Input
Amino acid sequence: MPITTLTSRAFNQDTSRAKKAAENGPVFITDRGRPAHVLMTIEEYRRLAKPRQSIADALAMPGSEDIEFDPPRLEIKIRPADLS
Output
């Protein structure tokens, strides 16, 4: 995925070029040589912004009863503190 970098001035003068470049990958728009904004397609934004599913939600889904999960038991041994 190519990354395109444009100055703010170049972006303002040719927005159609920036939109075409965003079809292939992110377009970084710089102000005074520093990245200030990123232009991307709406599909790419939605892919990045999609909420991730929690483990609790995944286990609550129908059919999750078939998942076998038997974690090993953890043994915690308590010993007296050495205060010497």
